[in-house]
Amino acid sequence: MMRTNSIYPTVLEAGKKGNTRFLDLGCCMGTDVRKLVHDGYPASHVFGCDLRQEYIELGHELFGDADRCPIRFFTSNVFDLPTTVDSATRNTVVPEPSTVTALAQLRGVLTHIYTGALFHLFDEETQYGLAARLVTLLERSPGAIIFGRHQGLLEEGYINDALGRNRYGHSEKSWPRLWKKVFAEAEGEAFAQRIVVRTEVREQFKETFRAKEPLYMLYWSVQIL
Ligand SMILES: C[S@@+](CC[C@H](N)C(=O)[O-])C[C@H]1O[C@@H](n2cnc3c(N)ncnc32)[C@H](O)[C@@H]1O
Known about the structure:
transferase activity; S-adenosyl-L-methionine; Meroterpenoid_MTases; transferase
């Protein structure tokens, strides 16, 4: 799914030139990052993080690469990160990938961050907190990108969730507002002006889930100019 995001070729080309670092947060079995590496992004610059170690192990089993996978997979809960970072807590040195065991080690050093089907698990406030935490991990450099896909709505509001969970759906209008606000709080209004947010809504999975209502997925990217 990650490769169908319209910013994917830009991310891939930057990765191939070197000196970038990529994180898939909520990578599950790591299919997207393995595809990224297959497409040419240097594996030694790619991290996959999930809450659950068993998903990472199942990924190794599925792909048969436990003894030779060059991607650094590790477990962390993104909500263990603080929502703000200052120059004292931002890393200035990029850690050796094999030593990375927690998200906190990647504060301020990631060029590319992807989240697939993660934001839509949460309510509105938690989605804001998640975005703020991703911003603490991102490099403050032109070309740095956070991108992803998750369920959204044509008009923002709560998703009609079959299991009764509190899941918020952003729209193409509300999603850029969230990111502008997060960057303004982290770095000030002037910096937030340098952020370009792209969104695209696609109607998907109606057949797969035999859904009665259309299901809208938000494909998006946030780029520092
Ligand atoms: C619905 S799956 C999406 C998997 C994959 N990224 C995709 O696009 O299909 C969400 C993933 O996020 C992980 N996750 C959920 N909460 C998390 C958290 N707080 N920190 C890190 N990962 C989390 C889950 O374990 C799960 O693997």
